[in-house]
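Reader question, answered in our methods column.
A reader sent in the components of a multi-part assembly and asked whether the whole thing could be modeled at once rather than chain by chain. We filled in our standard form and ran it. Here is what they sent:
COMPLEX SIZE: two components
ENTRIES:
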Amino acid sequence: MKLTGQAFIGATRVAGQGDALQAIDPANNTPLDPVYASNQTRDVDRACELAQQAFRPYRKTDSETRARFLETIAENILELGDALIERAMAETGLPRPRLEGERGRTVNQLKLFAEVLRKGLWLGIEHDPALGERTPPRPDLRSRNIPVGPVVVFGASNFPLAFSVAGGDTASALAAGCPVIVKAHPAHPGTSELVGQALQRAVQQCDLDEGVFSMLFDAGHNVGAALVAHPAIKAVGFTGSRKGGTALMAIAAARPEPIPVYAEMSSINPLFLLTDALEADPEALAEQYVDSLQMGAGQFCTNPGLLIARTGPALDRFITRATEKLQGSQGQTMLTPGIAQAYNSGLTSLAEQPGVELIARAPDVQSPNQCQSSLLGTGAEQFLAQPELQSEVFGSAALLVQCDSDAQMLAIAEGLEGQLTAGLHLTDQTDSALAAELIDRLETKAGRLLINGFPTGVEVCSAMVHGGPYPATSDGRTTSVGTRAIDRFLRPVCYQNFPEALLPLELRGV
Amino acid sequence: MKLTGQAFIGATRVAGQGDALQAIDPANNTPLDPVYASNQTRDVDRACELAQQAFRPYRKTDSETRARFLETIAENILELGDALIERAMAETGLPRPRLEGERGRTVNQLKLFAEVLRKGLWLGIEHDPALGERTPPRPDLRSRNIPVGPVVVFGASNFPLAFSVAGGDTASALAAGCPVIVKAHPAHPGTSELVGQALQRAVQQCDLDEGVFSMLFDAGHNVGAALVAHPAIKAVGFTGSRKGGTALMAIAAARPEPIPVYAEMSSINPLFLLTDALEADPEALAEQYVDSLQMGAGQFCTNPGLLIARTGPALDRFITRATEKLQGSQGQTMLTPGIAQAYNSGLTSLAEQPGVELIARAPDVQSPNQCQSSLLGTGAEQFLAQPELQSEVFGSAALLVQCDSDAQMLAIAEGLEGQLTAGLHLTDQTDSALAAELIDRLETKAGRLLINGFPTGVEVCSAMVHGGPYPATSDGRTTSVGTRAIDRFLRPVCYQNFPEALLPLELRGV
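And here is the structure of the entire assembly that came back:
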């Protein structure tokens, strides 16, 4: 399929009339055709109007219809073939195997929600039968979940497939029965357009109302802000920076009718290396750790950006091996020139904090926009005294906090901001009281706790929680990955004393 | 038990040092002893500190311990005996049978959440076992819900027992494992103190940490605002006015760490009388309707404040009978002088809107603070043109919108704000297409839909939804009545690759 540079408004393609935007290959700073144009208020209004019109029929489609729709999107994405992978590689600098893997994940997410729909648990059906003899009599009461209404999804830069146009937010919102308007991420407009074509075609193939899917472009923030403020919109899905997420939260809270924003924002994913685990094989742990830190140039929400360990010979050996591995590593192209700049300035700013030192750094980069992986160090007292040391540097950067006591490790756990994940490395010999005390604190700070693993790699399944207390996300009661992500776009409705013929089909005969 | 006028801060009783507040018997405007005093910032800080301290042990108590705690609160409330009912009657003007019924409901709510705890579904347990052979291998992933943290509950004026100190919000938050700080409603401080004693004693009897329960008083808004802003607080439960609820939402959204506010605010609970149902027996329908309208002087969130029907002889007969019944009714004392004044001014303001006329009114009142039940009327065009006609007048007041066509009824359904409930009266002969069209629109507007009934009377059960889109509540994804109310105070946590000994008990061997 050809790239046209046009937005998707229902079944039509519309050229924006605003500021130009164009993808840049971050590996060589070359602009990539075509040129896109920012959409304007009238396009926002039209897309929202179509989404509102589509909501009535779409929310009433049965589970099987929506499941087939999700599967059709998945098939259409696969049919895009290598053109999708090549465009995504050019726009993001991510390597082929990563993008092929991410495409698989995207397709599997769509299929997972098809399965969720067929199983029907998402409906949350409850039934309290009438008790006519009771005083006062109890009426027949049944309830089920229904979709909240049209949803805006912001494409994320770091997962151009799995958290972008047809990613987890879109898949779960469409599964719930909500029309979706995507605000395409400006860093990968071509990838977005290809997936948008797959989605728009699936709407037609499944004979759905055209307003079920639209997608707009913007070089700036106007379109996103206007979408979140539009009265037709009932919820927002966002993955990105804390600054971006909190800006959307403020717009949503200031509406005449406030709406929920599900923003997945920032996390430094602390890992506590308990001394037994460190002593067991410090070199192996260092290698595994640096692998996780460097995966995807560290451009993951779950990048392990904070290490906490006790000083001693084992930690020294860990540092030595991590340093060797970092110094022997190659540069990796980051997603955009802007992200590479932000990485460098974030790292400089962190290194300039009192008591922070550079421990090790990858060799000087050879190409534009590459990430020079870095490990910094500080002491527990400095870390506890300076909340700004918890700021995320997006990319392959980590801060090692060296502790003199278990009490300091516990104090660090206690003082953490909300996180997506928190981990412990331990052995059978580890002091189980210390582990339990750490877990006790980390449970209240993170959405996912992991033992002897690394946070990168987020499984898409029922038990997954990709969420966590603010500022990891805007709403720690939810997850943006896994089957429970659909719950974000549902609300319950109770039906009292309904004759069978007027009940929704799902509630008849239950 | 004696009333002391003191607040509850953990296990201690503390006299406030701020402005005085005193209950007033609304039946005769007599102040009721003792005099209470507003708490101050240091009391807020101390209660929050204790709640935070209590959270760690309390959240780890097992389901059985918390179930017994809730049952002990229920027993202690019953042990207060007639003193509680008499004090509540004096403070609220509500009649004895209503308050005895409400006490039963309060006790049953506590017992219901004890049952919810024992059944264990609230834990939301999921398990995706390890797939070691897969590439990449899947780790073992288990998840469960944990409590969010200390919760602030605002006592409601209109349910001095069932939505106040030990009401639905408190019961569900305590069940979830959250310590609770109650901001007592200033209209019934004595009732609050009695129930507070029952709660404080239950904390001691069950050997729980003292910070599990505190209760503060305030003549104004400072204590409530400071509680919602306090960093230890993680969620808020509120039942009251739209002005109060939105003020709390704004405070919560502006915190460095925003928190959810579950505010149940305003609803006019539209009832659509379809012509068949009206024609079947207009007089009987009018009598049942006026009974619902006058129940509790209309001081319910579910008061049926909006009637929609087609003009014609049947509606004329309905109006005639409703008028007779209203004119033959007696005044009922409202909860407070302030509520009675607001009722009168709200009614005056509604009656002064263009195109609104007074249809019928109860006889002039004979005692202070009585509600003079009123039925007003307007046309569909006027209603559709004036959004302010949807404003709630808290008390026994209703607006009848007379329509000339089914299309107007559908337009009214379409234009409604979010509601707690919406109802239809119909018969087997009713045009089923019209009913389906109305239901289709009302489903997106309300939390509970009812056929051939009246919204007053909210069953406490699993299928109940006492919620609905804004402005009925701040969060239409939730309910404040029924078993699902506990979900408001929970968030999921995932445990990856945990050895059995470190897993929470509930997740072992699942």
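What stands out: Chain B is about 40% helix and 20% strand. Chain B touches chain A through 66 residues (CB under 8 Å).
Send us your own complexes using the same form.
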